[in-house]
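User: Just a sanity check before I run the rest of the batch. Below are the structure tokens for the first item. I only need the designed sequence back.
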């Protein structure tokens, strides 16, 4: 039995904000996909969903995944193959949640992340306690661009408190995800 068997992560490319705070879709980046897949494997998560409705981005993801699972990359770097085996492509957050529901027989509890403070946010220790409910799946959402839109946060079961830096608060999503997963799942 894996320790984090009930925690899935989602990298959201839509709906997110752009720098003008308009709802938009962002492009898939190879660095994000590789690094978050490696984080998912490092922390022994059961799945990593990449969410985009854009057909061109879905095709790009499928080529990337194929290369590491069945193409030359599978032999070149077997550990990357392990990490990429966790990736699932979804067109929406709801579609990903339906897949988790199908596996678990219950809808996952959604945990949104963000860089902005909110009085509704809960801390890392509280989420660590929630994750101990091994009969409940959780879906931890990371936004690309300028972050998850407010509606996604409002429709989440929980909002995780942001990572607090020293005045500058604009980490890459892959860096934030690594820090958050370490804080939630490490054995310290």
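Assistant: Here's the designed sequence for the first item:
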């Amino acid at each position: 039995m894996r320790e984090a068997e009930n925690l899935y992560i989602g990298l959201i490319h839509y709906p997110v904000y752009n720098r003008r705070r308009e709802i938009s879709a962002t492009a898939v980046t190879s660095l994000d996909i590789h690094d978050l897949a490696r984080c998912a494997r490092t922390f022994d998560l059961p799945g990593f969903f990449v969410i985009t409705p854009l057909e061109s981005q879905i095709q790009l993801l499928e080529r990337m995944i194929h290369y590491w699972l069945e193409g030359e990359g599978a032999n070149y770097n077997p550990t990357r193959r392990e990490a990429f085996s966790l990736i699932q492509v979804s067109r929406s957050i709801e579609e990903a949640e339906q897949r988790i529901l199908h596996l678990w027989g219950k809808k996952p509890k959604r945990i949104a992340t963000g860089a902005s403070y909110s009085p509704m946010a809960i801390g890392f220790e509280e989420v660590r306690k929630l994750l101990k409910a091994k009969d409940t799946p959780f879906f931890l959402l990371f936004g690309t661009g300028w972050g998850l839109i407010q509606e996604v946060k409002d429709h989440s079961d929980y909002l995780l408190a942001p990572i607090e830096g020293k005045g500058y608060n604009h980490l890459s999503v892959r860096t934030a995800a690594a820090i958050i997963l370490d804080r939630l799942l490490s054995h310290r």
